[in-house]
Amino acid sequence: MYEIQPGPDLKEKLEILSDAAKYDVACTSSGVDRAGKEGFIGNSVSAGICHTFAADGRCISLLKVLMSNHCVYDCKYCKNRASNDIPRATFTPDELCSLTIEFYKRNYIEGLFLSSGVIKNPDYTMEKMCETLRLLRTKYRFNGYIHVKAIPGASGELLYSAGLLADRVSINMELPTQASLSALAPNKNMLNILNPMNRISGTIAAHRVAIGKEARLERAGINDHLVNSIFGKGSKVTKEAIAGAEHIGIETAGSQLPAINDTFMYPADRKDALLKRPFAPAGQSTQMIIGASGETDLELVRTSQELYKSFDLKRVFYSAYIPLNEDPALPALDTAVPMKREHRLYQADFLLRYYGFQADELLSADRPFFNDRVDPKCDWAVRHLGDFPVEVNTASYDALLRVPGIGPKGVMRIMSARKYSSVNFQMLKKMGIVLKRAQYFITCNGRMMFNIPMEERFILSQLADVEQTSERKLLIRNDDQNAQMDLFSDFNLTTGVV
After folding, report:
1. Which residue, 14, 290, 315, 333, is the most exposed by fewest CB within 10 angstroms?
2. Which residues, in sequence order, are CB contacts of 407 under 8 Å at separation 6+?
3. By C-alpha distance, which of 173, 210, 403, 197 is closest to 293?
4. Which CATH number is correct for 10-355, 3.30.1120.10, 3.10.290.10, 3.90.1010.20, 3.20.20.70?
5. Phi first, then psi: what are they for 115, rounded to 5°?
6. What is the pLDDT of residues 74-93, one digit of tens each?
7. By three-state DSSP, how is residue 68 classified?
8. pLDDT, greater one: 303 or 54
9. Average pLDDT over residues 30-59
10. pTM for this one?
């Protein structure tokens, strides 16, 4: 006689679904300041929410789980693909809320990151996720940080509910082009990803206007460059096809929020409380997998640049592909994880967002990949030695910002100091300028720090040695501290001295 096997208990579900969520990149500062409120649990600090560590040393800031690892899609790169024979589990909304609150009370976490496989269809999955968030905000009165991964293809009303309940809403782009998505994720369509990204971006801007704040000026709208980056030149896809509705939930900027059908989830007991709650105050982000498909670094950076411009994203996360599934369309299982490539892309991402660089400045068709030996800023500088050296006492803000070893804070310190006296190399060191890199590209009062030949090969080799030395020190420190720290790791039991 066939015996029915019992389903996994709560602990087993947590083990399965927290492990399945580790491929989503989400550990970052919240970007939201929200003080605690009487009668509610938790708050949010914009500077960061990192709090604890996993057994392998990774910093964990959120309870990072999937609602379910059941999935009707069969994406070739995904561990949870429908054709994989793996343990499956699904949280109920109450189970997930209870775990979040209990972990928060024990000071294990400071927020929730919630994603999910597609259980039946996008709307069904998104509705279950919204129900979880609604219970957290109302029944459990959780006031902490929540990051939710929206499901591509879900209805606008559910996306709107998620944005009112969560602090950050993100949609995984997964791959940078439609061609790669078609090859590796045949159940997904790029328009089903870009359209809700645009609608969420528009709703964030419209909601800011509706509550009396200025809309973000960074949102430039969809342009031909975005279409060409993702769909290729000559594609029949139009900007209008990506745009869809400009925003969801608000018909015109400044209008009252519409009454949503009662079947959808509200963040508070009264509907007029919707007007007092911002829509996705921490913005939205996305994630791209690196190394599963054949795109160059130039294509990845171009796509990221256009996403920032079009949708005012907070972050584009990069996830180095970990070979999990055997498939002819994927790299072999023994392929090394491209961690160095991921690192270079993150460095380039900062140059795009904070340093005023453009993708086509950092890379070109002749050099479509970043240099393994040095970071992208140094690589750009040695290829443009005609722009250097710059005089720190007279150079403009933009010119100083492009010097390797000088960041935005360093530029402000230099410009402030030179109002009162002439800046020299000793002063730069005290300001925190990384002279190991900057010395090749600057002068103080017309003189370089050393007699340095302005030759690309020489400077590149020197900068590569600096980076290798830094990496070597980091490896030695990690080897010395490879054990997980505990409360008494540095405490002498005999003398009682730390």
Report:
1. 333
2. 354, 401
3. 173
4. 3.20.20.70
5. -135, -175
6. 999 999 999 999 999 999 99
7. strand
8. 303
9. 53
10. 0.82
